[in-house]
Amino acid sequence: MNQPVSHDAFHDLDGDTLHEECGVFGILGHPDAATLTALGLHALQHRGQEAAGIVCFDGTQFHTEKHMGLVGDHYTNPATLAKLPGDMAIGHTRYSTTGEVALRNVQPLFAELEVGGIAVAHNGNFTNGLTLRRQLIAGGAICQSTSDTEVVLHLIARSRYTSTTDRFIDAIRQMEGGYSMLALTRTKLIAARDPTGIRPLVMGELDGKPIFCSETCALDIIGAKYVRDVENGEIIICEIQPDGSIEIDSRKSPTAQPERLCLFEYVYFARPDSVVGGRSVYVARKNMGINLAKEAPVEADVVVPVPDGGTPAALGYAQESGIPFEYGIIRNHYVGRTFIEPTQQIRAFGVKLKHSANRAMIEGKRVVLVDDSIVRGTTSLKIVQMIRDAGAKEVHLRVASPMIFHPDFYGIDTPDAEKLLANQYDGVEAMCRYIGADSLQFLSINGLYRAVGGEDRNPARPQFTDHYFTGDYPTRLLDKAAETMGRKVSVLASNG
Amino acid sequence: MNQPVSHDAFHDLDGDTLHEECGVFGILGHPDAATLTALGLHALQHRGQEAAGIVCFDGTQFHTEKHMGLVGDHYTNPATLAKLPGDMAIGHTRYSTTGEVALRNVQPLFAELEVGGIAVAHNGNFTNGLTLRRQLIAGGAICQSTSDTEVVLHLIARSRYTSTTDRFIDAIRQMEGGYSMLALTRTKLIAARDPTGIRPLVMGELDGKPIFCSETCALDIIGAKYVRDVENGEIIICEIQPDGSIEIDSRKSPTAQPERLCLFEYVYFARPDSVVGGRSVYVARKNMGINLAKEAPVEADVVVPVPDGGTPAALGYAQESGIPFEYGIIRNHYVGRTFIEPTQQIRAFGVKLKHSANRAMIEGKRVVLVDDSIVRGTTSLKIVQMIRDAGAKEVHLRVASPMIFHPDFYGIDTPDAEKLLANQYDGVEAMCRYIGADSLQFLSINGLYRAVGGEDRNPARPQFTDHYFTGDYPTRLLDKAAETMGRKVSVLASNG
Amino acid sequence: MNQPVSHDAFHDLDGDTLHEECGVFGILGHPDAATLTALGLHALQHRGQEAAGIVCFDGTQFHTEKHMGLVGDHYTNPATLAKLPGDMAIGHTRYSTTGEVALRNVQPLFAELEVGGIAVAHNGNFTNGLTLRRQLIAGGAICQSTSDTEVVLHLIARSRYTSTTDRFIDAIRQMEGGYSMLALTRTKLIAARDPTGIRPLVMGELDGKPIFCSETCALDIIGAKYVRDVENGEIIICEIQPDGSIEIDSRKSPTAQPERLCLFEYVYFARPDSVVGGRSVYVARKNMGINLAKEAPVEADVVVPVPDGGTPAALGYAQESGIPFEYGIIRNHYVGRTFIEPTQQIRAFGVKLKHSANRAMIEGKRVVLVDDSIVRGTTSLKIVQMIRDAGAKEVHLRVASPMIFHPDFYGIDTPDAEKLLANQYDGVEAMCRYIGADSLQFLSINGLYRAVGGEDRNPARPQFTDHYFTGDYPTRLLDKAAETMGRKVSVLASNG
Amino acid sequence: MNQPVSHDAFHDLDGDTLHEECGVFGILGHPDAATLTALGLHALQHRGQEAAGIVCFDGTQFHTEKHMGLVGDHYTNPATLAKLPGDMAIGHTRYSTTGEVALRNVQPLFAELEVGGIAVAHNGNFTNGLTLRRQLIAGGAICQSTSDTEVVLHLIARSRYTSTTDRFIDAIRQMEGGYSMLALTRTKLIAARDPTGIRPLVMGELDGKPIFCSETCALDIIGAKYVRDVENGEIIICEIQPDGSIEIDSRKSPTAQPERLCLFEYVYFARPDSVVGGRSVYVARKNMGINLAKEAPVEADVVVPVPDGGTPAALGYAQESGIPFEYGIIRNHYVGRTFIEPTQQIRAFGVKLKHSANRAMIEGKRVVLVDDSIVRGTTSLKIVQMIRDAGAKEVHLRVASPMIFHPDFYGIDTPDAEKLLANQYDGVEAMCRYIGADSLQFLSINGLYRAVGGEDRNPARPQFTDHYFTGDYPTRLLDKAAETMGRKVSVLASNG
């Protein structure tokens, strides 16, 4: 009984998962702006569980609340919401990177400009963030956070343009990478998506008021209507007019490239009930399982999903193969918040703190385990062992995505390349021996493309970005080329 | 994608669920006693999420730690475990009843007797607890908690017998109801199960050391072996001998009745990977779904489980009926801890904070929703509505247990009888109209008996207790007869 | 600039002070009972800074709040006071003994009796508390705290008498030692003082409603009128009548002895603005300084008080001797709450964290330091050194009370006898050398008696208790004779 | 028994006091840099109790800790100090201004420059801070705090000069007002005092290592030697050389004016044991009392200081007048931290929460109350009433400083001018009637000058700044002239 929504992100004891770094939500012109933003962020919680922030504007003043922890730990509190008045707000939910758990890095960030205040939040990563930061510091800028968002703010503050919109566009055009960005000024909600469209961003509408958010599930929770995806390289400016009406303007970046959405949104990150790039994530995942059953069939008694991500693919695999689908692994949802630093003795229990074998469905059976992906393989190893201990006759591991060889630079927190299983062992056979399964197979890259988009990969012009599998990066990597500073180094160590 | 393990208990916004009140775990003679107890309680977390306590004995002194919150929030902390030395321990995890959230009520409770200290913890409820409490107070006893466990302690302290074992047996024989009880003295671990065997209690073994716990899943997590169920009316005394060996003695209560395990352990409470009364809970639940498909078939396009409890039954229903099983409802696991007191505005979003419809699997379809049980029906109403809003053509609700008419007095926290859906509407038709489904059907009592035990109910001598369905209570109800005091009234309101 | 009110109790880094264990306050029939009790406890805060508790009765139910920390940290909070409705309350403020910082020990304690609830709080100590506790446990009583107050509750609960008043008197007559006790029932406020009158207890009145409290300063803060001292061995029962009037009854214990108030109340404990036993504490302290100047004159340039206790005596010494009084030591009031466990490096700064020399008044001068008492002498040593470091030509230490040789058993927390300075060195000369002063002199026992009561000590029938100076204990010491258990041992180590 | 050290700042219920805004401490080249800084800040706690921060540099990285609350609440914790390695540190303690209780405003502030990191902390206020801030924002700077310190950082970051020293000097020369400033770079500790020398700053030395701090009491606590005052307009640069030696360089600002130290440092702010501008604060305060006795004698029985500030002046008054000095008002030091927001009912007890009359010294007596200053007069009113209630025959109030008519702009938080008592009533007679005293007199401006400096005020070239009394401001007031923005307004309201 597996649940693809609650990623391992929250309680990853082994560092054996990928993490998305953020979710964003914004709304303009609605009297319940902060409450709706809180609900939207709650629906996007799977994109980041470390902290959440909201900035709103009440016609006179901007207000901000930032809290470590889950959205539901803070933003449902009447006292907190009372401090967020006004009819326009943007919010952000953030994933916990090691060590840097500091409120000053929690988005949205705010700056007071001569033309008025502006708050900015983004999901994704800039491939030239450090390069720009160094230029800014050389130019006398003071950076208080280690967040790339602050770089955007500085670029806006220093822009030669007059209007905030022009300044925002000026800044955004200097940024390279994969991102979805929202900005809030005294009258405007601005949304922007990177030129290649790596990170998702959708536009919705509630009571005629515009909403932007990372996934459609944030529209569903508040009963809002999906309007369309923000296009790659598009900047949409929504502005409240003196008469209360809202004017919406769209500008397409001249640097826009053909869209290449991140495949991992389909494989792992997005919520299964979301529609990303016009495609149901759940259906895509089931298709991955169906294609996997076709590519890598096996004689077996039960198909067992590996929680949490493997469930829809396992269902597809079972339906395609005719082998019964059963909950052979049970998940314990009561993993406390301090399990993050357990005693060594408890750490040794590892995967059992979260999962247990359902012996009645395993004992004496030939089991097909279906998982969404393999990163370092340490968890797979333990789960295969757990299934064997529960009496399985055979254990076949099927992975609903290709092997991962390359790091990401667009907002996914990947382990160092040499720690990826595919780089540690030479070929599937060796990987299978390490994991201890009777057989191991991965979905092909074309199997994945067909599951998501219905067609094989177009090598000349790939429909998605798939660099972690192929090494084919959709943008240049300026910071990586410079490589003179660590990615997240700051010379100030701080607790606040 | 539903998860029967994480009950609604933790974030029940509507009071529309049943709650078990506790889980217990104890171990004797193992050097890692406290750590193993913490892990066992973690596996039993679904039986109570309010608070957890552990008492251990280190050869000289008893130690206790009690904390509000999840086991994993506190007991994996090295500092906390360091305060729990010794090779014998018992622990308890407790469900939150309204208002009385006080550390002084957290078990195990301890008393210093003339013959030495004793700690006691139990799962279940005494049907003569208040009657005995009144007698004790009349006799000059001082009660510091509102817990029935304290009554047991007083009976032990006042017993005319000399040895702790005899005092414990003397006390336990005065208690009526349904319970599993553990006690720890300076040399002994004692386990007792009520004369009718209403609440479960199993015996296990790790490295030759005896363990007792509420469910087998607590054995599995630590790799312990299942030995046998403690019998109804049995008291098992394990005592460390001077040479370190452990002597185990069993006494059968003369008041023991034929066993009648609580059916709700199968329907809802126990973890699906547990084996209760020798039967796989998961298999029992799937059988309920299979029998339900036979008893209440319907033409439909998809079978959708209602999270969390309905999943195994839904799978059984799908397999029996041949209708595809699909995750039509997605659960949000990131429900924060303060969602318990949200603003009214957020409360209005109700079920959507935890569940969302997976439109791709619902729209235009005839949906069979399968749930484990219906208590008040308020959640069912909202879920049916959510499925309709997502575009379902028809919504048929199938419930994998009979209608609930009667309150429990053995440790399940039931709403007042008049709030039970079955008592509010006259017949299934009326209930169906209230809920807004196209059809509604419940599993029959015999369908349930066959799913669990393989046979129809024996009216002369029912194999299980099923009083919430039938009104046939397995014991007399002394406190209820007296009915002069509220069940959980204390005259002292306290925060500590 | 020294302040005798804020004792070293709160931040005693050296264990070089005496501590009183408690203050009590109670009021009957006043609509603001809890608020007035909180204010009274605030005025009595110098008698105990660890924790404070209040119990009140609202006509239906008893309510209690207990909090670690200062009264002003919690009881001025509207939310806290709102949980304490009703027109009768008793409260208690408690000093922190090492290790046992547990809410379950915070008074008042409450018990539900057959005849109704009763709450009890006391200041002082029972010399037969452990003896009685052992008898109670042998008789089947369960003790949840390590507080002697619980023993009183058990004696009340087990009394053969019917009315609470008779039960209370029955219990109190079994207790030996020095104490002031308050009890609250559904209609009564009861006050009792030990047979020898060791601990103080006064009766006051506000708007015609009776008040009892440890010192008159608790009457002053709320503008209440002082009525009289509760006599030694007296029990005063105040009862609300059905018509709202209050009937007051007094019973004198047949075991009452001639009163012998504790001299340390005058020397150190009581607030200088309090009137204890009909005498101004401030005047008594100044008299001690005057008598000290007569008994132990010295040629000097300035009289400097040692903060905090030495200030009034120093003023008396200066006025009598004609030597100018100057603030030669400045106190830092901002000692944080965690200074209790500083790093070793910071601990080394010792007395300087709280005091600093005012060099302008010290340099080149012959200084008379006046302190209230010397316990272990470790602080005196450091202060003399600090004064020398600031350039004093001579340092003469004058102590406004006699040498301390004996432990207390009536509620003052004294160090072990062998750690008392007077027991470590043979004579004043040796003590003076240890401390490093040019001369050292103590007030004589008759000088102290005259300062407080105007007459020499009557050896046949001492007017006060002075056992710490003389070894002449006013009661038998039953627990000490038995001496089989440590004074505060419990076999359960607990954090809650 | 009054204590001039612990200002009302901490628990000012009426807003009837003046507040200094900060204290600073820095040390270079000492292995215990952070611990010594913590101790120095503890000694300077009276200059600000809201929060404290320390920045240090360990040869590789800067580290910072910032905490709300007292120094002793956090910085004595071994865990906190362990996070502050290195042999150079600066620290800051800050007074709580209303509303803006935010960690992001706690100093020192830090910026990463191209030439390396720099941390800055200051005491005082810039009279052109807002003007500069607006210019900076217009130039594209982003301000994260509302602190003027950030303005300094921006000026440093944007300076055209190369070395940090030159950049610092460049920045400081643009700032107007009254301030003492410390900066820390990777090799340097820099100290600067404003051109008029309004705020104090002293240089000390420990084990040959330079220290700078606001007052000498911070040198005394760590046993450091006073070297000299930093001169007005002086910038002292201490730099660690490669061989570990320290080079010290001094530069005098060309804008330096004749020094005019703030008289309120002597009247109220500085600790009595500090030496400010070469004069003992304690002696200056006693002199104020002596001069007051000469200027404003009265027939009376006792001289009673008004806590806390009035004590030394009262002693001087008593010595000069021959009227006995007595503690007629007792202070309660146990004012809890939440007293800041008490219930209305408790607020009504007002001054009594902190002070009580010592009736034995008041009743039937003619009382001279001596206070250090009168701001709004609300506290004086209550204290006079309290003294009358305690039975005084006459109450004469003598104030050891002149009447306050004008606001401060150099770091003292003054109430709005129209709330100052001297502006509310026309003349001393009317003020006396409002306060309810039998007579009221203030020290003359010349009496104050003579008490501090030994000479009358030189009207042509006043030796001190005395603008709150005279309106003669020592600098121009640029922000005030502009007056387009509120003094502490930010458009972002934030909790973090």
From TrEMBL, chains A, B, C, D:
Record-annotated active site: C22 (nucleophile)
Biological process terms in GO annotation: 'de novo' IMP biosynthetic process; purine nucleobase biosynthetic process
Domain of life according to the entry: Bacteria
Entry-linked InterPro entries: GATase_2_dom, Ntn_hydrolases_N, PRTase-like, PRTase_dom, PurF, PurF_N
Gene3D superfamilies for this protein: 3.40.50.2020, Glutamine Phosphoribosylpyrophosphate, subunit 1, domain 1 (3.60.20.10)
Any Pfam family: GATase_6
Catalytic activity: 5-phospho-beta-D-ribosylamine + L-glutamate + diphosphate = 5-phospho-alpha-D-ribose 1-diphosphate + L-glutamine + H2O
EC top class named in words: transferase
EC number: 2.4.2.14
Stretches assigned to the Glutamine amidotransferase type-2 domain: 22-241
Metabolic or biological pathway: Purine metabolism; IMP biosynthesis via de novo pathway; N(1)-(5-phospho-D-ribosyl)glycinamide from 5-phospho-alpha-D-ribose 1-diphosphate: step 1/2
Keyword tags: Glutamine amidotransferase, Glycosyltransferase, Purine biosynthesis, Transferase
UniProt cross-references to SUPFAM superfamilies, sorted A to Z: N-terminal nucleophile aminohydrolases (Ntn hydrolases), PRTase-like
One of the record's GO molecular function terms: amidophosphoribosyltransferase activity
Function: Catalyzes the formation of phosphoribosylamine from phosphoribosylpyrophosphate (PRPP) and glutamine.
Family to which the UniProt record says this protein belongs: In the C-terminal section; belongs to the purine/pyrimidine phosphoribosyltransferase family.
Family matches, as PANTHER family: AMIDOPHOSPHORIBOSYLTRANSFERASE
Protein name: Amidophosphoribosyltransferase
Phylogenetic classification of the source organism: Bacteria, Pseudomonadati, Pseudomonadota, Alphaproteobacteria, Hyphomicrobiales
